Structures are given as C-alpha cells and as structure tokens.
Amino acid sequence: MIHFDNVTKVYTTQKRPALDSVSIDVDKGEFVFLVGPSGSGKSTFLRLVLKEEKPSKGRVHVAGKDLARLSNWKVPHLRRRIGCVFQDFRLLPNKNVFENVAFALEVIGKPRRFIRKVVPEVVELVGLEGKADRMPEELSGGEQQRVAIARAFVNRPQILLADEPTGNIDPATSIGIMKVLDRINRTGTTVVMATHDAAIVDSMRKRVIELEEGVVVRDQTRGVYGQAY
Ligand SMILES: Nc1ncnc2c1ncn2[C@@H]1O[C@H](COP(=O)(O)OP(=O)(O)OP(=O)(O)O)[C@@H](O)[C@H]1O
C-alpha cells in the first residue's frame, strides 16, 4: 500500500537529509507506529506519502501508483484515498459536528442524499452519536479529535495518516482515540501514526518503525516505544 524504495529527502535549506535511504513497505490493512525523536523525519515521511514533498532520491509508491509518475492534476485524486488527522484537530469552528464531517464529502461533490446517510454512520463509529449538532467549542479535546477522525474517514480512504493525534489529549482520553483508530484499521484501512506517546505504542503492540536522524533504526512487528526520549 505504501512502498518507499531507497528514499532520501534533503530540504534545500538543510545539509543533513530529513530522510536518508529509507526503504519501507506497509501492506494493506497494517497498523504502523512511526516513532523517533523530534526532527527524525516522521512528518517528512507522511508528507512524501501525500506528495506534498518530492523525494530527492528514490521512489515512493502509494496505492499502486509511482508518485514520481503521477501528474499534478491527479494528486487531488490520490489525496482522496488518504485521510489525515493532526495533533491540532483542524475543525471548522463555525460548523457543527455533522457539517464538519459532511464538508469533506461536499467538496468532492457527493450527493446530499448520500451525505445524509453516511455522516451519521461515521459519527456513530467514532462514538459521537447524539452530538452531531454540537459546535467544536462545545466539545472536549478528545471529542474534537473524534470529529477530525470521522471527517478523515467518511470517504472510506484506503490509508489513514495520523500525525501525533493524541499529542493534545490527556492519557485517559487518548485510549478512546486509539480504540477509534483501531476500529477504523479493522475495516481494512491502513493506518500510519507518527507519535511520541510511549504508553499508547506499548499498549497497542503493533508494528513500530523507528527513525533517527532520517534513518530507519528499527522495524519491529508488535513492538514497543523503545528508549525514553
Ligand atoms: N519544510 C522544511 N524545510 C526545511 N527543513 C525541514 C522542513 N521540514 C522539516 N525539515 C527538517 O527536516 C528534519 C526532519 O523533520 P520532520 O518534521 O520530518 O521530523 P519529525 O520527526 O516529524 O519531528 P517532530 O516529531 O518534531 O514533528 C528536521 O531537521 C527538520 O528541521
């Protein structure tokens, strides 16, 4: 599903590569934690998957496509297959829960009838049934992140990328967020989550890929977080 073949990324303003000869295969349906200290290249990895950045060397394949050969006009189509969740939720503050999730479908031209059917299903999947008409400011951080996950998943993407999704959430609430991501993964969606959250990684026992200064230093099935950073 995601295939990095000897990928190096050097930002023009930096000497040291952000990613250095990285080769990784993530299969359909896998759940992968990307760990490593700040600046080790986790976000760069995610940006390359989205074709927000291009590799300086090597090849990136996503969902069977060689991104170097994907013309710019096809990039939005690629991104529709990839849901994204961030540390800071990024909800639209003037739209309620239903509208925030529906918006993701409206912008890709889905019919209203379809939207009215699938949005409540996904709102329920993330555990927010009964809260569809709340505004973001009326929700806790954990609930806001559930909305963000619903929005990322409502189009049933093949891949879900999560960059520190529990970074702004207390440990007890984070467990609930991970249950939602696990539920999504069980539908067959490939999940890649960059995180510093050792407790979460240790509790889930999923594949762990560790980066250090842009190099993969560990790739372990059913791994733990590793050393304290
Ligand atoms: N747009 C950019 N331009 C120049 N350098 C960048 C850019 N983005 C990241 N870098 C550099 O690339 C390296 C890897 O950064 P990256 O953001 O991928 O790390 P990270 O592991 O996601 O860090 P964090 O955990 O703090 O989010 C760092 O040295 C960073 O300063």
TrEMBL record:
- Gene Ontology BP annotations: cell division
In this entry, which stretches build a coiled coil?
none
Record bears the keyword rRNA-binding? no
Q: How does it sit in the membrane?
A: Peripheral membrane protein
Q: Where in the cell is it found?
A: Cell membrane
Provide the alphabetized UniProt keywords: ATP-binding, Cell cycle, Cell division, Cell membrane, Membrane, Nucleotide-binding
Question: Main localization of the protein?
Answer: membrane
Q: Which Pfam families match?
A: ABC_tran
Record bears the keyword Ribonucleoprotein: no
Q: Name one GO molecular function term.
A: ATP binding
Residue limits of the ABC transporter domain? 2-228
Task performed by this protein: Part of the ABC transporter FtsEX involved in cellular division.
How does the annotation summarize its subunit structure? Homodimer. Forms a membrane-associated complex with FtsX.
Q: Which family does it belong to?
A: Belongs to the ABC transporter superfamily.
**Entry protein name:** Cell division ATP-binding protein FtsE
The species is Nocardiopsis suaedae
| Taxonomic lineage of the native organism | Bacteria, Bacillati, Actinomycetota, Actinomycetes, Streptosporangiales
